[in-house]
Amino acid sequence: MLIVLSILAAAILLFITEWVRVDIVALSVVAALMLTGLLTTSEALAGFSNPAVLSIAALFVVGGAVLHTGLADAIGRRILVIAGESEARLIAVIMIAVALLSAVISSTGTVAVLLPAIISLAQRRKISPSRLLMPLSFGALLGGSTTLIGTPPNLIVSDILQQFGLRPFGFFDYTPIGLMLLVCGIAFMLLIGRRLLPDRKPHKALQRVETPQELIALYRLPDNLFRMRVRRDSALVGRTVAESALRQRFSLTLLEILRLTEPHPLNAMRDLLNRSDRLEVIRPNAETVLQADDVLIVQGTGNDVGAAAAFWNLALQPVSAQEDENVLVTEEVGLAEVLLRPRSSLVGKTLVEANFGQRFHLTVLGINRPGLDALLDLKTTPLRFGDILLVQGPWKNILALREHPNDFVVMGQPEQMLGPPQRAKAGLALLIMVGMLILLVIDALPVATASLLAALAVVLTGCLSMDEAYASIDWKSLVLIASMLPMSVAMEQVALVDIATRALVDGLGSLGPLAVLAGLFLLTSALTQVLSNTATTVLIAPIGLAAAQALGVQPFAFMMAVSIAASMGMASPVASPVNTLVMGAGAYRFGDYLKVGGPLILLIFVVSMTMLPLLWPF
User: Fold this and answer.
1) What is the pLDDT of residues 393-420, one digit of tens each?
2) May I ask the CATH class of domain 213-328?
3) Predicted TM-score (pTM) of this structure
4) How far is CA 564 from CA 103, 279, 610, in A?
């Protein structure tokens, strides 16, 4: 018992502080349970074959198809068309729209897709984004509690019920209480929360734009782009990009190389550069060898460009405003803004120290920091939480940043990120998602089977490539869930669940099942503000089930309370990725979440304690 308690305490400490990545902590828990002999190898690894884990993985793929094909963006924008002029109506429509989408796909993806549209809407209505973005975040959290597949805690709780031989929750079992909480949440934001929301005018650098063309203008990129032609007698001829030391010595970013494909007289060089059929566009790497008459497209200050041109004997000319878009944005490569999360591994490091370019195969063109007018130095600036990086490179590499959800949030969903084939598949993605939902609603197939079939269908129909399907899965979350499930087994085997249950029942049981239910809800809600909602659910759900059994009552209200409370991470910007995502864009502070989210959680608590015993009698 002491060994399990020690492992659990160490894991919780590391989860809260994130001194070590959460997935490494979770895997360490599995290793510790095996090494100490508390669980057999089969028992410790059983979480990786758990139906709930496989269902969540498949749902990530289906949600990825909905996002990649532009279906989510189209649905969200269509819903927002009905928004009126008043702030109250805007808040209501935004919360309903994001809740509808979050009921069936990732809440983080939903908020990332709708965020640019909401900010654009706020600008047109002359309303501060801080008045709309927190309702957007809270609407996503409330929407996830309305269906079985809306959020991982719902699936985990349902699976635990099934493991103990009880009826699992169905697709719409969450809907009655979830809709009540959504209605109450909207009413709260309209009547009380709106008065508590800050009214801050964010700095222009924080205003998310919807197209790469606007990003080019916002970051003043045309002024910082130059052509540098390698003269035939330049010392760069025959050297590699690494040997040129353009970044290390001159702080220049080499974006691409234009190379002529046929011999030419020198006086025809300018005309030939305007002939795309005579040019080869090269995406350089460290080993790319430079040739005479190569034209280097670089980004940097005029002084740095001049110094490099003088040192290497390069001909110099600025890139015209008409050319900048073609240089930076094509069907293969483009621009996007990336937000650094609170516990990102890049925080405190410069881009050079983080080895950003080599790790992610992208180029950072600019750094925006809340409250600062000037763009920051790319080479020497230590990064902070909330910094926004403008990255340029292949769209597939930009999308791959989603594989690092603890480090980054990719802002928006630019249409250029979606090639024509993917946009054309939006109808297919919709049909597949609807088909999956029908199978779940009529209970024709288990969740794992229906979701796996849907995931397979989106790949076979070309809505996603297999690589994109893998990239759409949040592997950290899966490893966390699969690795922490055995901890609940170990807690049961050494009677820790019994002790926690007795403490809860002995302390509150004399007041009746409702008091125990309330204590369980408050405990779960407090933990989810500092732990992930999945880890909280895995730890608390077995205690809730055992508490109901000890009281001799039906466990469904208790398990429903755990899943709802685990998803209500509204009192902290780090409790949920959606809170982090809107923090910089809305110029929010830590206390804003506690001031608005805290009372909302208390309202959800009161409504849950009132309705759960009625919907799920003891």
Assistant:
1) 877 788 778 777 778 877 765 544 545 4
2) alpha beta
3) 0.66
4) 13, 58, 14
